[in-house]
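Check the record.
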Amino acid sequence: MNISKLNVKTASLAALSAAALLLGGCSDNDHTSSAAITPPAVTPTMQDYTINITNLTANQPMSPIAVVTHTTDSVLWSSGQSASLALETLAESGDASGLTDETGVTDLIRGAGVLMPGASEAISLSLDSTSVADLSVLTMLVNTNDAFTGFSGYDLSELAIGESQVFRVIAYDAGTEANDEAKGTIPGPADGGEGFNAARNDTNKVHAHPGVISSDDGLSGSVLNASHRFDNPVLLIKVSRTE
């Protein structure tokens, strides 16, 4: 057979094969579609927590405990920074209701009432697994001008079922009201005076509380006595995941 004729025949067959493949890839329908795959729905499960709080002071009742859940990028207070209006209100009057308006707050649960010295209280918290958040706990030492205690921004996702985290927390000064302990300036039973006052006449920065200077310590205008003094820590908080 002539070699040149063989090469032409082979080339023609290759061209026909390529055309067949091209035609085979065409469709009578100009539109292509694929079935959308819907992922299975995730059913949220509830995660249950118990927050146990114990008042460690001798004569400093605590205002109703505020248990707050909030997003990880929000902070309710920070040492060295000015107190928000909501924190000032809590630290001067024990009223935690304003915390619901703070950026990132998702829930506020309050204790049953004033937590007396030596007393304990358990507060339950239930969150679905898709909204587990950071936790903060706050309360006022009511026989003071503007002392509060607690912690801010604990990541609840760190706790597995059956695990607990214990906090021994100090007293903080909101820095919004002078610690003069004068009659009419303290809302607790030692005085029964004014709570929140919008005027700020102290450092305007949150810091560790230096403690009270009572009339027994030489502060003649103080309505407090030696029994109202406190050492740190002032509160024991145990956070447990139960489910």
